[in-house]
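fold-stage: in
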Amino acid sequence: MIALSKKGSCSSQLCLALCAFGLALLGGLSRAVPMDDQDYYLQEISNRDHYYSFPYPGEEYFPFTEQPGEEGTIRAAEPEEHPGFKPSRKELKPKKSSKKGKSIPETPPDCPPLGLETLKITDFQLHASTAKRYGLGAHRGRLNIQAGVNENDFYDGAWCAGRNDPFQWIEVDARRLTKFTGVITQGRNSLWSSNWVTSYRVLVSNDSHAWTAVRNESGDVIFEGNSEKEIPVLNMLPVPLVARYIRINPRSWFEEGSICMRLEILGCPLPDPNNYYHRRNEMTTTDNLDFKHHNYKEMRQLMKTVNKMCPNITRIYNIGKSHQGLKLYAVEISDNPGEHEVGEPEFRYIAGAHGNEVLGRELILLLMQFMCQEYLAGNPRIVHLIEETRIHLLPSVNPDGYDKAYKAGSELGGWSLGRWTQDGIDINNNFPDLNSLLWESEDQKKSKRKVPNHHIPIPDWYLSENATVAVETRAIIAWMEKIPFVLGGNLQGGELVVAYPYDMVRSLWKTQDYTPTPDDHVFRWLAYSYASTHRLMTDARRRACHTEDFQKEDGTVNGASWHTVAGSINDFSYLHTNCFELSIYVGCDKYPHESELPEEWENNRESLIVFMEQVHRGIKGIVKDVHGRGIPNAIISVEGVNHDIRTGSDGDYWRLLNPGEYVVSAKAEGYTTATKTCEVGYDMGATRCDFTISKTNLARIKEIMRKFGKQPMSLSLRRLRQRARQWRQRR
């Protein structure tokens, strides 16, 4: 017992000595870096220990063996010296030779991205040798990540090394054995600086200590990097390499800049049933849908397939053509396709206004397949939705832009290739600015030109042929005016949030300011209905996509408080039609790899359905005359809400409202005004609130006079003639 206690005492003293030595070492390191960088530098060191100090079950742990070579580079470890490193069979095969005697690498397997852009790779899996500051740390080295407006903050546009020398590196821990096949790189996203890497080495490891460089017959392979900062550059490895860690070591960079990179790694994770971390994060779907990216012809064929499966509830039509003549196809889903049913609300989803934001397009194509299958299977929820709603799905508003992005591929289009139409117009912000007309009229109360608070007419200048308006935009406007939509969502990408109007700030001197509509509470509920049922939008643990953290508003944001935009589709829809429209940003990655589509569908499926169901919230009814005929264009007003709507051609209307008691009025030109109290409950289903209004006495007189070929004399003209007679009599 005494011996044991002495041994334990010695062991404790040794541990204390080692701890003290470690703290002294960290202190020395902190003194070696600038004060501004100390916290982040130490964080990088401490974070690394958690992942490589202890091996996963089944993995061998190797002591630190890397040594600097003659030029200070990491000496590649031979595979046979490290049994934990498993080269693939293709690595061991001799390379084929061409007729000219040059070696030709074998065709690499089609492995997907590991997920730096989609955030599947967490910040804790990214490490770097040094960093200029926290905002340029390894966690910012993600493909297509965007910098904040104000640089030198926490949200910059790349990983940037703290020093410019060939010993810097950025490393990805895949947390399991992975067959690495390629690397995609970009420079730093910045308005003010130009930084990118022009060449680099790739190294792999199974323990993050002993590294093996990618080699060919001549030695270490030096991969060609970027020639500017935004266009992604793909380099495939000569042969796939199996390891857990991969490291990028910049060798040269833009001479007027510094070492800065954004990247994505291509790799196929190998099966590992013992890896709990991987099994916990696996996402599968049971839906039998076509999970792939569809070009224009494939999209059209898929629509035909859905229509053939469900001919009684679907109809394919087009709303116009793109600049290059491609038809803008839509699918209608209803129990009576092609016909507006009195009392049945109309809903729309559109996607692809920005052609490179592809996820929304594929989600709509998946949604139409899902609804057809579930209707045939007798799913009561879907059957009820289809029987009570007329649904329109327009998956590709900008097919010309999509074609450009599709040809580049899911990871190589950058942030903006295909965003605009063929003639360079951003459809999403190409609508008439009706906000300014409304606000100017409200601010100048004595103005001769009065602007209504709804159905504001489009200005004449916008309708002229010389106006800068895309043909796709004109087609959408005509579609919106033809069909009495009640609720709509336009699916976009690059973020994970639901934005609601107004999208334009009222003040001329601000670029960000919360600018609510009169229906702000309704819009906030609609936004929350989608965000709260999405798998990730309201998850407080998730990382922000780029620079904005929307968790304080539960995954929703007022468009103007985010960034002001004039002429948005949301504001136009609200001020020119009855339709309440929101922008739904469905993912951080605008163009995710095909392998990500099943998980993205699971993330959004319930939200897509719940949002459609909200079209049945509020009040609905028909405005009739005393003979029972519907009155078109009647105005429906809600007391306390300075925004009206109008009835359709059959006299029916739908007014989105949150639960509560409302005083509602119906009026039309030549008719008396009728008012009643309507109560909206919490249960799904709009409250019926019909109106019967009669003609005014003046309207009746006019009708009788017209019937007998006479026109009633106006009161002002009658008075003028009477005064003229009196004047003649006095003379």
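fold-stage: in (second)
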Amino acid sequence: GEVLKNLNKFYKRKEIQRLGAENGLDARLFHQAFISFRKYIMESSSVSADLHIILNDICCGFVLLGHVDDLFPFFLRHAKQIFPMLDCMDDLRKISDLRLPPNWYPDARAIQRKIIFHAGPTNSGKTYHAIQRFLAAKSGIYCGPLKLLAHEIFQKSNDANVPCDLVTGEERVFANEDARQAPHVACTIEMCSTNTPYEVAVIDEIQMIRDPARGWAWTRALLGLCAEEIHVCGEPAAIDLVTELMYTTGEEVEVRNYKRLTPLTVLDNALESLDNLRPGDCIVCFSKNDIYSVSRQIEARGLECAVIYGSLPPGTKLEQAKKFNDPDDPCKILVATDAIGMGLNLCIRRIIFNSIVKPTVNEKGEKEIDSITTSQALQIAGRAGRFGSSFKQGEVTTMHRDDLAQLKEILSDAVPSVKAAGLHPTPEQIEMFAYHLPDATLSNLIDIFVSLSQVDGMYFVCNIDDFKFLADMIQHIPLNLRSRYVFCTAPLNRKEPFVCTTLLKFARQFSRNEPLTFDWLCRHTKWPLAAPKNIKELVHLEAVHDVFDLYLWLSYRFPDMFPDAVLVRDIQKKLDDIIQIGVCNITKLIRASQSAAAPGTAEVVSEDFPLSSTQKDARVVSDHHGAASTEALSIAVEAAGLRRAKNSRPSRLGSRQEDLKSYGRGSLANRLLREGLLTQEMLRQLESEWQDQHRNGRYGFGSKRDDQHSSKETRKKRK
């Protein structure tokens, strides 16, 4: 008792906390180190003799011989054992010092660049003017946020007899038949070269420099491109930050302001009913399930509609846009997510917001519903009445009367200024960290890097959750650090279990130095695939398309290990055609899904409620054409980073699978939905609570304690 009392006294001493901070222990590390130190003293049977003597003097009250502060050297020694970076903290702080990003690009600093900011709303001609300068230059680079945009500039440039290459994460297309590099290139922004000199560079959608995940790519392009002229296009909200950043490089910014080319009117009446739809209308939804529901209701009225959402392949999006834009096609209505905000030229007369709240997932992985931002609302609404289309002015309204006043308020608000630019640790920085901390995992290296990093007020470190998710997933696979880093930067959606488990298989085979051949990939994806018969099959085909994208992405980084890029690109085009057939028949797929589940409900995968890792990976095993093989299940569990589960009994995992398949979709849930005793929202809430309980491993499904816990939670919420 005396030992514990004195240890707690030691922990609370301000002087000790200050000494800890001086030795690299911030509040969080200090607390963790103390818990470990206390456990070591209280539970260890072999405390060192010198520490034993000090503790004895303190506990016996020998004031002249012992004081709690005398524990600090022993505490620090213990802390350095569990946090090895404390021994090289000065070196690590220097490596993770991110306060002068302009200095990372000596080639760009060696020239005096001219910065021109083309500022304006959607449909103002700002990008058009920048592209005209790009086409007139002897050499140029276009950097855009989407493959679709890079592809559009690539085509536009070559059509204007300006040879231009295309570079995306998954694709290289040369304008010259002999594969010589053309003087112009259109690329996705992450792929831009900061070493190649150009006369003109265009950086599109500069406001994305604030993006929590991808902002670093815009920062890198803005600070690092070696071009005599940098043409920056985007929202006026980014002008101040770009000007400040360029002040630190000694470069002036010329601002050219643009106004919208066609009028945009916010209507005074909501649509209220799909009976009021007119040709050229676009209904914007913020979830796939809403897309399915609205398109089904439109078809029931005898109208054809095109469908566009984020997870569709680019080719399918373009075909759906072409169908909607074609004046001779009977399809006159578009149902889309906010994926239409960028990258597609659409002839829309009226934008109708089906809802003005958008599901998001916060840093803790929790589902939240937030109103759309002014920037998002303007980007989407601005798609109506595109200059040069058949509609000379645009209109915007809401589906529901209650939302209209709030939409008007959102659209009238000023867009907040962009305050900071994103940064991301480079592979070189992580390699230097690994040199000092050879036993740390990549996920831990990144955590330590971010916790020690120092940034200027104009910058922030981008969210590295996706990187860490993949690092944890493949941690047990033996890879060198460079290869591991590349795998962890792979652009995939971690909400897609089939894609995640495929990456895991890729990494495992790569580690064995076994090339991933076309035949192997066909076996894994069960190619060739048939046209989808229901929504679940369509969702799976979209995931397979993403797997082909992942293969192509890795093939450009490890060409010897992923040797069949040409063959994979061919079958990806065929898969795109198959998905297009599915999307053209989407209402039939919805009907098939509804009849398979129950009247009034569609058994579809909701993108708004990401499952926990274990649940996602268990679900993909049961969903993948019903194949619940032991091998696939073990991979799914591994992918969740839960290798300890490998020793669990298969029967328990199997019953968990059945719970996942049946939960919320069984006859009771459907009956309650039909009878109006349960809403979809209530069902989602129940699903969310059930997932939370299983994520925390608290209770068995359907147990008495589970029910008690749920009722307590409900009472708390009511209070």
